[in-house]
Amino acid sequence: MCEDKGKVKKSYHFQVAEVVDNKVKDVFNFNFGGHHDLAEIVEKAVAVGNITEKHAKQLVCGVRLLHHAMKKYPENEAIKAFAPKFKEFKDALKAQANGK
Predict the structure, then answer these.
(1) Among 17, 43, 82, 86, which is least packed, fewest CB within 10 Å?
(2) Span 14-70, pLDDT tens digits
(3) What are the Cα distances from residue 31, in Å, to 13, 15, 34, 61?
(4) How many helices and strands in the chain, by DSSP H and E?
(5) Is residue 3 scored above 80 in pLDDT?
(6) DSSP SS3 for 30
(7) How far apart are CA 75 and CA 78, in angstroms?
(8) What angle do CA 63, 67, 68 make, to 5 degrees?
(9) What number of CA atoms fall less than 13 Å from residue 23's CA on the CB side?
(10) Rounded CA separation 26/24 (Å)
């Protein structure tokens, strides 16, 4: 469990492969963890009705991974400049998913 929030820590494995002429070549892979349930977030995004499941998966993974990297490097100048807009974007997505 995540001690600070009392939530279960989840771990995900991402594997990126390139497919050319039906040949699969592994590019890289990594583990990613946190307390968010990515499948649940995708379901909420799809339930809103204005995004396909495929694109909801891409969006959810992209936002979570970007947010995680931004938290690790808050003093990076590019991240500092982008952080307020990212927060605004993330808050808008959450509001939309919650029907607000």
Answers:
(1) 17
(2) 999 999 999 999 999 999 988 889 999 999 889 987 899 999 999 999 999 999 999
(3) 4, 9, 10, 12
(4) 3, 2
(5) no
(6) strand
(7) 9
(8) 120
(9) 3
(10) 7
Residues in the chain: 100
Q: Residue 38: which of 75, 64, 4, 66 has the closest Cα?
A: 64
- Please say if the pLDDT value at position 4 is more than 60: no
CB 33 within 8 A of CB 25: no
pTM: predicted TM-score of the whole model, two decimal places: 0.80
Alpha-carbon distance 50 to 57, whole Å? 13
CA 70 to the chain's CA centroid? 12
Tell me what pLDDT residue 27 has. Answer: 97
CA distance 45 to 50: 8
Which residue is listed with tokens 């993330």? 90
d(CA 25, CA 7): 36
**Terminal CA-to-CA distance of the chain, rounded, Å?**
30
